[in-house]
Amino acid sequence: MSTLKIVALVLIVAGVLGLVYGSFSYTKETHELKVGPLDVSVKDKQRVNIPIWAGVGAVAVGAALMLVDRKKT
């Protein structure tokens, strides 16, 4: 399997996942206060929205790369 085909498959899978889920979240830990042996930290939950155009674009570019790879061989 060529590198171009692998990149195309990754783009297609990432695009479909972006369209299905629409966003993902992660936890960011920040250290707010450190006084002597006392350490206070805050865990902040961040949410990242994935635009629809990005998912569609990734699927389209992945499909185009698959077609280019197919015509090349």
Automatic annotation (TrEMBL):
Keyword line: Membrane, Transmembrane, Transmembrane helix
Bilayer-crossing regions: 50-68
Protein's name in the database: DUF3185 domain-containing protein
Native source organism of the sequence: Candidatus Moduliflexus flocculans
